[in-house]
Amino acid sequence: MTEDQAGGPAAPRRVLVVDDSRAQRRILGSYLRQWGYAVEEAASGGEAIGICHRDLPDLVVSDWMMPGMSGPEFCRAIRGMKSESYVYFILLTSKSGKEEVALGLDDGADDFLTKPVNSAELRARMAAGTRILDMEQQLLARNRLVRATLDELQALYDSLDSDLVEAKKLQQSLLSERYRDLGPAEVSLALHSSGHVGGDLVGMFPISDTHVGLYGLDVSGHGISSALMTARLAGYLSATVPEHNLALQEVAPGRFAARPPAETVARLNHVFLSDLETEHYFTIALADVDLATGRVILTQAGHPHPAVQRADGSVEFVGQGGLPVGLIEEARFDQIEFTLAPGDRLLIHSDGITECAAPDGTMLDDTGLAAIMVHLRQTRGPAFLESLMWKLSDHAGEARFTDDISAVLLELRPMPRPG
């Protein structure tokens, strides 16, 4: 006797004995009941079919030669019935030729017993069939558990996917403006995550009527934790709450001036290491731009070298590299100064652009970015950033972007031509 899945005694296995000989049915039934099986009898294949339609047995012991429907025909009929559980079928036969045995196997029989039936052999064959059915029952139970687990995981995945879609919307909302006309200059921004959410962020914040702050940053890693960190950092460089912006200092009630970018990055480094318990670090390029003179003060902390494209189309890369933020408490950050002339533009971009790989593994690199910028020198504003994405897609071929892609583009308007 086996135990069911709850640990209690299982119901006895049901056996259907099919034979046109009443005496043979009684002999077989007597043996099987002694061994703990629940036995039902049928005198013909037709009668047995009716019983099976009502309730399929676990095992069948059927004579081969019967009037009307033979044992193999009855076996084929059972195999054609739809059922989740398997019926183990034993044919009783006086036939011993290989061709007859092959025919019975082709019709779906599992085992054979020659007549007259030996009780010990019958018991052994029934035990073998019961073991197979027990294994099938265990497998079905495990499959049901797997299906239930997969259904539960799918529900969790759907819920997580829905949350990530909303998280992506929230992260994109950190980029409150993708274009702003500043009069003497224009600023365009782009943010594309390689997954639902990412660790890149770009932004701008007003400093005064003639000054604007620009930044691009990239938090280490990918996914939710990196995205949460970008949200925290966005607050430290807020465009809407200047008193919370570490890049600004209040010089009079309601009036703010820019801190030197190197000092701002040093403050970010201190806050990151002292207030935030995280294994993450981030790179950043932070610029203070004087729109009246074109003077740019830039600090680069591990971020890719920003690109400057002059009005004649030539491209140069600026910056001194530097350490990422959040690695060393006493890290020092340098800043450089350069001047943009009318018609020049500055591109602060993430490494998702320069490290974009072609199908053969070749990275775009600074040289490839410069070539794209030269090719797109007549394209301006958001159209430039959109065209840049298309060029990156061409470079990557059919491969998906493996890293987030972000950029902020500052373009000084060209000098008006004399009338």
Automatic annotation (TrEMBL):
CDD domains: REC_OmpR (cd17574)
Top-level taxonomic group: Bacteria
PROSITE patterns linked to this entry: RESPONSE_REGULATORY
GO molecular function: protein serine/threonine phosphatase activity
SUPFAM superfamilies: CheY-like, PP2C-like
Response regulatory domain: residues covered: 14-130
UniProt cross-references to Pfam families, sorted A to Z: Response_reg, SpoIIE
UniProt xrefs under InterPro entries: Bact_Sigma-Reg, CheY-like_superfamily, PPM-type-like_dom_sf, PPM-type_phosphatase-like_dom, Sig_transdc_resp-reg_receiver
Residues that bear 4-aspartylphosphate: 63
Record's keyword terms, sorted: Hydrolase, Phosphoprotein
EC number of this enzyme: 3.1.3.16
Name of protein: PP2C family protein-serine/threonine phosphatase
Organism whose genome encodes this protein: Roseovarius ramblicola
